[in-house]
Design brief:
By secondary structure, the chain is α+β, with helices and mostly antiparallel strands. It has 2 domains: 128 residues, Elongation Factor Tu (Ef-tu), domain 3, CATH 2.40.30.200; 49 residues, Roll (Membrane-bound Lytic Murein Transglycosylase D, Chain A). It is built from 5 helices and 11 strands; from the N terminus they run E-E-E-E-E-E-H-E-E-E-H-E-H-H-H-E. The protein has a 7-stranded antiparallel beta sheet with strand order 2-1-7-8-9-6-3, with helices on one face. The longest helix has 13 residues. It is rod-shaped and about 95 Å long. The chain starts with a strand and ends with a strand.
Amino acid sequence: MDFTLEDPSGLKLHFPVNPTEVNIRRDKSFETITIIQGGELDVPQGVKVKEIAFSSFFPSQYDASYCKYQPLPNPQTAMNQLNTWMEKREPLRLIITGTDVNVLVMLSAHNSSFKGGEPGDVYFDVTFRTWRDYKVRTLAERSGASDGEARPDIKPVSATYTVKSGDSLWAIAKMNLGSGSRWRDIYEMNRALIGDNPDVIQVGQELVMP
């Protein structure tokens, strides 16, 4: 099993000592709303970004019993590289061979420490968050002016209502628009379908609603 980080330029950091364990955290996000006289209710919102964390160390001296390769990277140089990557906004590729972990990540946190009696060794904890790609569209792209792209029709699609037995325009307006007095709005939008008499509508007619 090998643990490797690689940036978009191809620069790689191969961790020389395998961690004893890897923690992968998956959470679902919820929005909590309060219902009057009903208490709190959790509404699921989706899956949060996955976190991958592990701990190990960069040894200053090679030891075949735990080191994966040689020559070893300088411990301080390796930690500086992690610092540089954490400050950047570009994702890294984390690969853990022998597992399904081969994902783009952001280095979200790392801690380092030194232990007495082990001069030059640097111990660390790292946390990665899986990367979700996103695109910020420019105003030109949104208006359709980029590359001759046609501007999308952003008008809302009108709802429809299918006439049932016993319906009238007044009743339909009252039930769907909150006021029976809005029957004329429905009639004006459907005059060609209804005809000259707004009091006569047919079962099965599909009316476009305001």
